[in-house]
Amino acid sequence: MASLLHSRLPLSHNHSLSNSCQSFPCHPPGRSKRSTQRLLEERSYDSKRTLICQSGIDEVTFIEPPGSKEAKAELIGSLKLKLLSAVSGLNRGLAASDDDLKKADEAAKELESCAGAVDLAADLDKLQGRWKLIYSSAFSSRTLGGSRPGPPTGRLLPITLGQVFQRIDVLSKDFDNIVELELGAPWPFPPVEATATLAHKFELIGSSMIKIVFEKTTVKTTGNLSQLPPLEVPRIPDQFRPPSNTGSGEFEVTYIDSDTRVTRGDRGELRVFVIS
């Protein structure tokens, strides 16, 4: 009796089609099993991934299986950790050897390739905040200007470089480079601690390129001389400025997430920042 009742239960076409799609490969009308299998193989991302087939009456769609996004996020996290490990202990690049520079660049390229292109036009807020510089390939040249003209960090001018930050405001388009410095003084005077703020305005070019235009430099003493007012350094007139120092520059954001940012400058400089 139970089998008789079961045989009389109505089965809709949609219900049977849905069940068959979950248990067996889908074959849209007019397409053989062999051609459907070949299409599945052509549409697969690689040999280690599979595709889930969802069938309707007139079409077949393919979606990425659950878990693949999580796997990619895990891989990106691993490559980011590899980059951060490669640049750690290099004193922001000042202590980097040629081998260190190569390892950091290779680790950055792996992360950039896996994460894909950056689109700041769709989410400019990712730039917002105070970012701490943890590595610059240009600092290996032993000057504070990197590949650009800058004061040396050796005996000719006793400057000790402290922390370096970028403060970015996406609403006002302010882009400030903040550098902590310790200036040597003749004995018996103690070193002078100061913070230099190089103020810029920025604009987004395309989806990931940033252009900054210099406005002014302000120096504020800290430590024992913190009571002194800030000093604005006069800007060099354009006619006396070296051709290599135009007051503006461009760099590309090649990777960014909630706490890490990687950029490449217009002179090949690789920089790594973490949110501060």
From TrEMBL:
InterPro entries: PAP (IPR039633), PAP/fibrillin_dom (IPR006843). Residues 79-273 form the Plastid lipid-associated protein/fibrillin conserved domain. Keywords: Plastid, Transit peptide. It holds the Pfam family PAP_fibrillin. One of its GO terms (cellular component) is plastid. It comes from the Eukaryota. It is found in: Plastid. Residues 15-37 are annotated as: Disordered. This is Plastid lipid-associated protein/fibrillin conserved domain-containing protein. It comes from Solanum pinnatisectum (tansyleaf nightshade). The lineage of its organism: Eukaryota, Viridiplantae, Streptophyta, Embryophyta, Tracheophyta.
